[in-house]
Design brief:
- The complex is a heterodimer of chains A (805) and B (339).
- Chain A contains 21 helices and 39 strands.
- With 805 residues, chain A is an alpha+beta fold.
- In chain A, a hairpin with a 4-residue loop joins strand 25 and strand 26.
- Chain A is elongated and about 125 Å long.
- The model of chain A has no long low-confidence stretch (mean pLDDT 94).
- In chain B, strand 6 and strand 7 form a beta hairpin.
- Chain B is rod-shaped.
- The termini of chain B are far apart.
- The model of chain B has no long low-confidence stretch (mean pLDDT 91).
- Chain B is 41% helix and 19% strand.
- Chain B folds into two domains: 89 residues; 228 residues, Bira Bifunctional Protein, Domain 2 (BirA Bifunctional Protein, domain 2).
- At the A-B interface, helix 8, helix 11, helix 13, helix 14 and strand 27 of A face helix 5, strand 1, strand 2, strand 4 and strand 5 of B.
């Protein structure tokens, strides 16, 4: 929504403030001004001059020398303009002034300075301007010539300020109007707010009775078949129409609002839409079959040609305006070609109606046609405003002599909208705001914005143009707005103290972040939705449940169309991005959800599981990644039964270099080297590694409880054991055996050498462990150790392991 | 004998004096005090001395020995000190050579900003709560006073899974979920990921993060909301920060406000970050709409409350002067390691 300052001042004549003051004050009282533009910001020293004499230029065929009277004197100006003659009154920029742009319409920020100088040897003391040079256009000033200097009417005062005469000493404000303030989508609504904000008198237009002795109802019959979609339909008739340009003041106001003046009738409808926020339509009365209007839903499959000459396809949800035989307009959106007014129109029908906002919005979307009118209607207009607006339009018709208004109005308004009455409870308002305002102060604010007050009933009466006021909280906002948000004190909540806390799962996540970062991983963020192609890139089989992903009905595109069921595509994409940007030794982690549907199509919310995903390439290998996982488990107190099972079931990982991670019987995640084909698909040119931990399970196992174990008082005894092991036996199996056989006195066992190759026969590997024993209550004797070692040996030999020493 | 002792003493002291190095000094010790040393030899010759002179002689030998030992020790200390000094001198390093850093990873700027916000509100007694990202329309809209066909529900803003289920467009549904549980009073913040159907560009992302705040108690006022957010702004952006509350409209609060903070880059003088205005818009807030309270089973006659929502990316972008939102989701380590 835009308005000019001058139009606001038309209804708040005492308003006296700078553009910046207006912007600040209006924003703080709730009518947010997004910005403003002064039409004259790049115009300076421009007066109305009259050409007294024209001579040819001695050295240039296309130039002429003009003597121009600028009031106090006559100056000489050389110009190349083709359209001036003696006696013309024109805008003249004097030496030292500036214009906004070039005559081709190109604007220059800051303006173009004009200096006196010589043109082909002849002195020129200024410049005569075109409307484009003044920063406007022929759209806004239709009387301006197509090429050449703007020419003022004969009654223009020589020497006067030309910027003033063109109405360019004005400021246009751009507002952000919130959807609840439908009344502020019209100049009158904003002016009312401005008057209240600045404490000035509000003087809206006074709409007088219009029309001849005839009755509109004798001309037109209006039937509304769906009063829910059309709560009110007002129609008035104007005959003996004289199409002509509208007066300058109206053209200026429309132009400043960005609306191109057309002719008096069209301009009046546009003017009313700006002024009252009420869209209007004018039909050629003689084209309305049966001289009747029927408001009904469109027939299924109906087509209609709108006045922009486009054929529109409609359905029964779209409301139509029809005459006795045919559709003549899409209600609230656009009229039809078949009834539009032309320069030959003799009698016309003015329509000011109120349509259901939601229906207009949905229809306009379905048809794919959003107009100024539909944008207004979709907000849901006040039916009582329609009558005021149509009468104002007729008043303008009479004032402008655009036609003869027929008396009366055809009005279908079955359920009159009544003002809302709200109990006035000043103590509740004070309690909600934390203020101590008096009743009188509050009532004063209400009066400023035309809210009524029924003293006997102690009720505030919200006029129907305020569709946002229903209860005390709404009144509290009105009080707060005009008391000033800034004047409300600042306090802190009192009452029962509460404990600030971070829930356990978030604490666990923070530990995961800390560990990842200590280990050199930086945090990435990936999208929650991705392309279904991800499954193919990851070589996930067609029948995998991972492919049962939630689909978004209206995605931004296929690449963002499903909710991810795994987090590795995002991670691999990020690694690939880094690789392609030549980043070395990249380590990334992510903590975010996967979305696992319980059933498809979705009937209940999916299982959202936070995944701790680690990805890396460069320095480090599988065991580096495993180390990060182990560090995390240590920090989270997850000690029991950590096992790594090489099940080889993840298709996107190297079949021989992946492990499922279990803690006891619970699977908490997996890790592995990225399958070379997959790495290649994602553009990662070296070995890459992934680990994924399912945080809900990790959280279930995690604990921050610790029990101090006394520091050992008795010495430890260490024995090394070296063996030749069949290749298929895993270190984990050997360690499990050592732990099982070592008994209570076993403190630890540590692999310190592993070798496969030349000296070892094929199918075997050499391994060496360092085994440490310690008792809590005594120094271990040789006998203890020998017995324990013997058991371990026997155990290992039962696994077909050959003990060497 | 006395003269002989005198001579040994003189000789020893002279040699100690000239030793100049610890190993030479040790040679001197062995030469004079060792088993075959000169002084030891004198002691061994005691049997040649008359018994009555032996005590006096013995004393003399011991005195001589003590003198030599003292001088040896003193000299040793001096030499050791000199040696240490030489060593330290020779070990001077160039402290401006590059550091050997262990390559610690970096938190995402969003998370850093989030943790700041969490820290501030936890300190004020708020609990951190999370809610689902795939959410029922009921919680995302209906219970927040956004009925069916409200323009905010338009397809152009909301990602739909089906008619009843959406990707949440705001963290506000967590408000409704927490209020419904009926445990009062409430002081909570709910950070999380939200989704809007915006194409990716320098200032838009279809997925971003918000932090919702909610306080419900008896006697909560708009003044409390102002005071709380003023505290928050000062904590987050510095003690000089000022706040400005502007009336606004949100369906689920009444009265509602948008809050600007004085620009923390220029202090309010006007710069490119605040587009010359001196103020930066950071959040929306208001008193919880009584109808929202009713829908969540809370009596608005007894309880009131306030709510606010902050855009996390907005804070991160402003705080770290990041000029393109896409950087937040590209995961380029050259970007991440700056935080």
């Amino acid at each position: 929504m835009n308005t000019t300052l001058s139009w606001i001042k038309a209804y708040v004549p005492d308003l006296d403030c700078t553009a910046q003051e207006y912007t600040d004050a209006m924003t703080l009282s709730g009518t947010k001004v997004e910005g403003y533009t002064a039409a004259d910001r790049d115009l300076d020293r421009i007066v109305i001059g009259q050409i007294e004499q024209i001579e040819p230029h001695p050295d240039a065929d296309k130039l002429i020398i003009c003597q121009v009277n600028i009031g106090e004197k006559t100056i000489q100006i050389v110009t190349g303009a083709p359209n001036v003659s003696v006696g013309d009154k024109v805008p003249v920029v004097l030496d030292g002034g500036k214009v906004a742009g070039n005559h081709d319409g190109k604007m220059t920020e800051g303006g173009i300075p004009i200096k006196k100088g010589k043109l082909r040897g002849i002195e020129s003391n200024g410049m005569m301007c075109s409307i484009e040079e003044l920063g406007s256009s022929r759209d806004m000033y239709p009387e301006a010539p197509e090429f050449g200097i703007y020419i003022f009417p004969e009654d223009a005062e020589v020497g006067a300020d030309a910027i003033e005469a063109l109405g360019l000493h004005d400021v246009t404000f751009e507002y952000e109007i919130t959807s609840n303030r439908v009344d502020c989508f019209g100049v009158i609504g904003i002016a009312r707010e401005a008057a209240a904000t600045f404490g000035k008198e509000f003087r809206p237009p006074v709409v007088t009775k219009t029309g001849n002795e005839e009755q509109a109802s004798d001309y037109i019959k209006v039937t509304v078949k769906d009063t829910e979609l059309c709560p009110r339909y007002c129609a008035r008739v104007v005959k003996n129409i004289k199409i002509a340009p509208s007066p300058k003041w109206m053209q200026r106001r429309l132009a400043a609002a960005g609306i191109r003046p057309i002719n008096n009738i069209v301009d009046i409808t546009n003017y009313i839409m700006e002024e009252y926020g009420q869209p209007m339509h004018a039909y050629d009365y003689d084209q309305l079959a049966g001289h009747e209007i029927i408001v009904r839903r469109a027939e299924p499959g109906e087509t209609f040609v709108t006045l922009d000459d486009q054929e529109r396809h409609l359905d029964e949800n779209v409301l139509m305006i029809c005459d006795g035989e045919k559709s003549v307009g899409i209600a609230g959106i656009m009229g039809g070609e078949n009834s539009m007014i032309t320069d030959q129109v003799k009698t016309m029908l003015f329509e000011a109606a109120c349509f259901d906002g939601t229906n207009i919005r949905l229809s306009s979307k379905r048809i794919g046609l959003r107009t100024e009118a539909s944008a207004k209607f979709e907000k849901g207009l006040d039916p009582n405003n329609a009558e005021e607006a149509i009468n104002r339009a007729c008043q303008l018709v009479e004032e402008m002599g655009a036609g003869e208004v027929v008396g009366g109005m055809a009005d279908v308004y079955p359920v009159k909208r009544e003002p809302v009455r709200i109990p006035f409870e000043p103590e509740k308002i004070n309690k909600l705001l934390g203020t101590k305002l008096s009743e009188e102060e509050m009532l004063g604010y209400f009066r400023k914005i035309d809210l009524g007050y029924d003293e006997a009933a102690r009720e505030v009466i919200a006029p129907t143009f305020r569709q946002d006021l229903f209860r005390t909280a709404d009144l509290a906002e009105e009080v707060a707005r005009f008391y000033g948000y800034a004047n409300i004190p600042m306090t802190l909540p009192t009452g029962e103290a509460t404990t600030g806390k971070l829930p356990f799962d978030l604490r666990v996540r923070q530990v995961a972040q800390d560990i990842a970062e200590f280990c050199g991983f930086s945090q990435g963020m990936m999208y929650s939705f991705e392309s279904p192609k991800a499954f193919d890139k990851l070589m996930i089989p067609e029948d995998s449940p991972l492919r049962d992903a939630i689909k978004i009905m209206n995605p931004l595109g296929e690449d963002f169309s499903i909710m991810r069921t795994q987090s590795v595509n995002g991670m691999l994409t990020a690694l690939g991005f880094n690789y392609s940007h030549r980043n070395k030794n990249v380590r990334l982690y992510e903590l975010a959800n996967v979305y696992l549907p319980k059933a498809l199509p979705l009937t209940e919310l999916p299982d959202e599981r936070v995944q701790f995903t680690l990805g890396m390439y460069g320095e480090g290998d599988f065991f580096t990644m495993k180390g990060v996982v182990e560090e995390l488990f240590d920090k989270l107190g997850i000690t029991a039964g950590r096992t790594y099972a090489p099940e080889g079931k993840r298709p996107y990982l190297h079949p021989g270099r992946q492990a499922e991670i279990y803690c006891g019987k619970i699977q908490v995640g997996y890790l592995g080297e990225v399958h070379p084909t997959v790495a290649d698909t994602y553009g990662i040119g070296e070995r890459a590694y992934l680990a994924v931990l399912d945080m809900p399970e990790v959280t279930r196992l995690a604990t921050f409880d610790r029990q101090y174990q006394g520091i050992a008082k008795f010495p430890a005894v260490t024995r090394d054991i070296s063996m030749v092991v069949p290749k298929e036996i895993l270190a984990g199996q050997i360690e499990a055996m050592i732990v099982q056989r070592g008994g209570k006195i076993l403190e630890s066992c540590q692999l310190f050498d592993i070798y496969e190759g030349a000296q070892i026969r094929s199918g075997f590997k050499s391994m060496a462990y360092s085994i440490t024993f310690r008792a809590k209550d005594r120094t271990l004797g040789e006998a203890d150790i020998t017995a324990a070692m013997k058991k371990i040996w026997n155990g290992l030999e039962s696994m077909k392991i050959e003990i060497r020493a | 004998m006395k003269e002989k002792l005198q001579a040994i003493r003189e000789e020893a002291l002279a040699q100690i004096e000239q030793a100049g190095a610890l190993d030479k000094l040790n040679d001197v010790r062995v030469n004079f005090l060792g088993k075959k040393g000169k002084l030891t030899a004198v002691l061994k010759s005691m049997k040649e001395i008359a018994p009555e002179e032996r005590p006096a002689f013995g004393q003399l030998v011991n005195e001589t020995r003590a003198q030599i030992e003292n001088f040896l020790d003193e000299t040793k200390k001096t030499l050791e000190a000199q040696a240490l000094e030489r060593q330290l001198k020779s070990e001077v390093i160039d402290v401006t050579l590059p550091a050997k850093k262990s390559s610690v990873g970096h938190r995402h700027p969003n998370t850093i900003a989030l943790e700041e916000v969490e820290r501030i509100f936890i300190g004020m007694g708020y609990e951190v709560v999370e809610g689902p990202e795939v959410e029922y329309d009921l919680y995302n809209f209906e219970k927040l006073n956004i009925p069916a066909n409200h323009p905010a529900k338009d397809e152009q803003d909301t990602f739909y899974i089906n008619k009843e289920i959406v990707l949440r467009t705001q963290t506000s549904p967590v408000q409704a979920r927490v209020m419904e549980q009926g445990k009062l009073p409430i002081r909570m913040i709910a950070p999380g990921r939200v989704f809007r159907s915006d194409e990716v560009d320098a200032t838009h992302s279809p997925s971003f993060h918000q932090i919702e705040g909610l306080v419900i108690d008896k006697n909560i006022t708009f003044a409390d909301l102002k005071g709380t957010l003023e505290e928050f702004a000062k904590e987050l952006f510095g003690p000089e920060t000022k706040t400005k509350f502007r009336p606004h409209h949100f369906p689920f609060t009444e009265p509602s406000a948008e809050v600007d903070v004085s620009c923390f880059k220029c202090g309010g003088k006007g710069c490119r970050f605040c587009k010359g205005s001196g103020w930066i818009e950071i959040l929306g807030c208001g008193m919880v709409h009584p109808h929202v309270l009713e829908m969540c089973g809370i009596d608005p006659e007894e309880y009131t409350g306030f709510a606010f929502g902050v855009g996390l990316e907005r804070i991160a972008l402003l705080k770290y002067e990041i000029d393109d939102m896409r950087l937040l989701y590209e995961d380029d380590v050259r970007f991440l390691k700056q935080f």
